[in-house]
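Narrative summary of target 7.
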Amino acid sequence: MNPELIILSDTVHTLDPAHPAPAQAVAVSGGRIAAVGTRDDAARWAGPATETLDLGSATVVPGLVDGHVHPVFGLDITAGADLSGVQDLDEVRRLLAAEAARVGPGEWVQAWGLDPNAFDGAPVTSAAIEGVLGGRPAFVRLFDGHSALTSSRALEMAGVDGPRAFLGGSSVVCDAGGRPTGLLLEFPACELVARCLPAVTFEERRDRLAAVLDGFAAAGLTGVHVMDHSDESAALYRALEERGELPVRLRCAPWCQPGTGPEDWARLAARIGTGGRRWEVAGIKLFIDGTIDNGTAWLHEPDTCGESTSAYWPAPADYARAVTFFAERGIPTATHAIGDAGVGYVLDALLALDPAARARAVHRIEHLETVPDTVVERFVGSGVVASMQPSHCTLYSRADQSDNWSMRLGPVRAGRAWRCRDLRDLGTTLVLGSDWPIAPFPPLPIIADAQLRRRAGTREEPIAPDQALTARQALEGYTSHAARAAGLWTESGSITPRKRADFTFLELDPLAAGPDELARSAVLGTAVDGEVRLRDPASV
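Modeled conformation, tokenized:
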């Protein structure tokens, strides 16, 4: 056989249904898996030029893949002070004051990750932060990435002095007198002010993106499903490729927005298949609603604030026509749908497709934060993939339902939170991810949270504990189910001969270690196309 590389480890979880027992050796040739077996087998495989990597007691699993991230869009969202995890308004003000002092007089104050729970049920308005800004313009992204809090000076510079009309479900929130409160909901409204922010050079963004992708690899990821794409994204990926190989695979999906039609959709379709060595445009991303936390989700009944009553597309039938356009051309789609009405409508649109058209590509629904039994049951036999982020549940909601998300929904709908286990038990393909930068990207804590239904390393009460995944189900969400969600099961997702030689090397066995222990354990390295990247032990 004479493989180029043999990887030895006490435990190799292949996740190959045809060969479920753990192995101890994997041979690699030409970036592909050549053989899987025991240490004794490996002794017979080796040739004079074979390199052997013995990882001892470590565990090897198929390369971990995050099912939902925003690497380039995340460069915009993560500018300035990091407010993520802060749930005290005084601490928010302190951090913003420090950022204002850092940037200097008259300069923009930027921040990200603002959690509305910090306002303790009060309206999210700029009045709460104006006093620490010293009259500076400020643009503060909320944690959901769909909204922003802006200062009065920022609104003035952007020429925003009252409500605006938008094609999609977006708004400049105003008080009873028609004066903006500082809160901007959804991307079109945020862009009114974001376009006034200081420019960042291409080189600066390239270097920041390189650091993000290196961080993905160091955390154990070998690939990510990128839920956005633009001409700038393509240029950045090419620039990084010119400097060397990308450390992770990128499967990209540009956005299809309301107000577009067949000519626009055809231009998006023309991008499919473009890319580079480790990145490719391979699907289309759509939105049917916004978020529960800012009142822009689509629910069957209004939330407790009287909001979340409509779709992101003013005419939802136009969304259905767009999905049909792509499906008929064999192009995968991924639709952001959070509320019960939104998820139900997307299922309606997908199930209404001609069966032959629906079978030409994999179609996904992203997030599915609250859905009733009647919607969950409709996944059976549909072929529709569910893409969910367990840490959105564990980081931003609480078992006692005292958080903003739960209070807006009320106890019944909040009790239907992130129904991962129900979907898996019904046979649905369930890919897991982070939605970075909405939540941190390291996969091991997310795999742990999916089992615990609480933040790993805490004593918090679990949230809807009956929705906990098993250890294997959680690992499959980052491996075999991630591959199926991308239509790549014949190429990846298991350690099987002829598949890509993508692996993640772990200190602990994720199928044997306790979830809390797993979350704080080390990632030893990764391999993509058989190219090994081991972490410096000093950095673990």
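The chain has three domains: 5-63+503-508+518-539, 65-71+202-493, 80-194.
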